[in-house]
Amino acid sequence: MPAQINPEESELLYLVQSDDESAFRTIYIMYSPRLYKNILRFVRIEEVAQDLLHDLFIKVWDKRHTIDPQKPFKAFIRLQKTWYTIFSGKLRGKEILKTCFSHNIILFNRL
C-alpha cells in the first residue's frame, strides 16, 4: 500500500520543485528534527550530525526538480539514498575523521 501524503505537504513539495525557498524552509522545519535525531544516533557527534543534516538538505535542494509532489518527502529521501551517499562520502574524507578524533580527545581528557 503506497504511503499517503497530506495535501499541505503535497503543495509544499510542488512549490519546492518550483524553486520556492520559503516552502523549502518549511519542509526543513518539518523534517530536520527527526532526521537530525536519526543522524545523531548513527554518528554520535553533534557537530558531525549537524553538518550531515545540512549536506542532506543541500542535496535535496539540488535535486528538487526530481521531487514527485504526489509522494511523501520521506519517500524522496529514501529513493535518492541521499543519506547514505552523503555519509559514506564524508566518512571516507579526512574531515569527519579529524572531527571524530578531536572529540574523542576532548572526551578522554574529561575523564
- The tally of beta strands, per DSSP, is 0
Cα-to-Cα separation, first versus last residue: 51 Å
- Tell me the CATH architecture: Orthogonal Bundle
Mean pLDDT: 78
* Count of discrete structural domains: 1
**Top-tier CATH class:** Mainly Alpha
Tell me the helix content. over 70%
Q: Spans with pLDDT under 50 lasting ≥5 residues? A: 103-111
| H/E element sequence | HHHHHH
CATH topology assignment = Rna Polymerase Sigma Factor, Chain: A
CATH homologous superfamily (4th level) name: RNA polymerase sigma factor, region 2, helix turn helix motif
Q: What radius of gyration results from the CA coordinates?
A: 16 Å
Q: Structural class given helices, strands, pairing?
A: mainly alpha
For the biggest sheet, the summary is: none
Annotation field: number of helices: 6
Tell the overall outline.
Answer: elongated
What amount of the residues lies in strands?
under 5%
Can you offer a commentary on this structure?
The chain has a single domain, classed as RNA polymerase sigma factor, region 2, helix turn helix motif (Rna Polymerase Sigma Factor, Chain: A, Orthogonal Bundle), CATH 1.10.1740.10. The protein is built from six helices and no strands. It has helices at 7-17, 21-43, 46-62, 73-80, 82-92, 94-110. Residues 103-111 have low confidence and may be disordered.
